[in-house]
Amino acid sequence: MNMDFPSNKFPEWMSECDKVDSVLDKKQKNPAHRSVLEDSLPFLEFQGSIVYSYNASDCSFLSEDIIGTLPEGAVLGFDMEWPPVYSKGKEGKVALIQLCESEEKCYLFHVSPMSSFPKGLRRLLEDNRMKKAGVGIEGDKWKLMRDFEIRLGDLVDLADLANEKLKCKEMWSLNDLVKHLFHKQLLKDKSVRCGNWAEFPLTEEQKLYAATDAYLCWHSGNDVAGTGRLSLIKESGL
Predict the structure, then answer these.
(1) Listed residue (133, 147, 109) closest to 219, CA to CA
(2) What are residue 96's DSSP bridge partners?
(3) 224 close to 13: Cβ distance less than 8 angstroms
(4) Residue among 69, 71, 72, 126 nearest 97 (CA)
(5) What's the order of all strands across the beta sheet hosting 75-81?
(6) 31 preceded by cis ω (within 30°)?
(7) What is the model's pLDDT at position 20?
(8) pTM, whole model, 2 decimals?
(9) What are φ and ψ of residue 164, in 5° steps?
(10) What span, in angstroms and rounded, lies between the C-alpha atoms of 182 and 205?
(11) pLDDT at residue 223, rounded to an integer
């Protein structure tokens, strides 16, 4: 995609390299002050419709609908959850897959209660015509491969992309990106985050938590340039 910005001029968030360096210096000099400022940021939550699917046939139907409805090159916010296992060297199996397609709708595919992995969802996840955007998504790719032999297609790691655009070498979490890009923060309730994601049904708190993460991956991928049209991903030429 051609850039519409003048030479050496980027959208505001992309041109704040000096500010980022300054912030990093301040972080090192006064971490207590930084913590107070960050704790005062307003919380950001998904406000749209949450589609919760826990039946394999319904899940396949919804996945096929996404494939047939969204255009080639569309960005899906992506995340996964699995239950914690407090045994060394062991890890829980993926229990929930979250996909966000727009400001209005996020899908929660609760695969743990399903008798088999939905064919339609497998096809959607492996489809290279749609980008899956997330933080640390390369690790998710390998976990899906281990757990279900799914080859996640067309990945965009938002942390790597942010470092490329901001010319930084930060270890970005999703919450870090939200704070930097949107001046808000995620509500990370440990009792929800470390809850049993394999248990059916999910609580309303779990649904909101999961949908918000996927939504913010979609939002970061599509709207960080501040225009709603000039997306971070599309501008990068990926």
Answers:
(1) 133
(2) 81, 110
(3) yes
(4) 126
(5) 49-53, 105-110, 96-100, 75-81, 131-134, 155-157
(6) no
(7) 43
(8) 0.80
(9) -65, -45
(10) 23
(11) 52
In order of 41, 52, 182, the CA distances from 37 in angstroms are 7, 35, 14
Burial of 194 per CB tally in 10 Å (0-12, 13-18, 19+) = exposed
What pLDDT score was predicted for residue 37? 63
Q: Which 8-state DSSP code applies to residue 25?
A: H
CA distance 18 to 166: 9
Helices (H) and strands (E) in the chain, counts: 10, 6
Q: Which two tokens stand for residue 46?
A: 């998904």
**Rounded Cα gap, residues 16 and 21, in angstroms:** 9
As beta bridge partners, residue 75 has 131
pLDDT score recorded for residue 35: 58
Quick one: pLDDT at residue 22?
Answer: 47
| CATH for the stretch 12-236 | 3.30.420.10
Sign of CA dihedral 191, 193, 197, 200: positive
pLDDT (0 to 100) of residue 16: 45
What integer pLDDT is reported at residue 167 of this predicted model? 84
Q: How far apart are the first and last CA of the chain?
A: 9
Q: Where are the domains of the chain?
A: 12-236
- How buried is 206 (Cβ within 10 angstroms: 0-12 exposed, 13-18 middle, 19+ buried)? buried
Blockwise average pLDDT, block size 10, the chain, 238 residues: 42 44 47 62 95 98 97 94 90 97 97 97 97 94 97 92 85 90 88 95 97 94 46 48
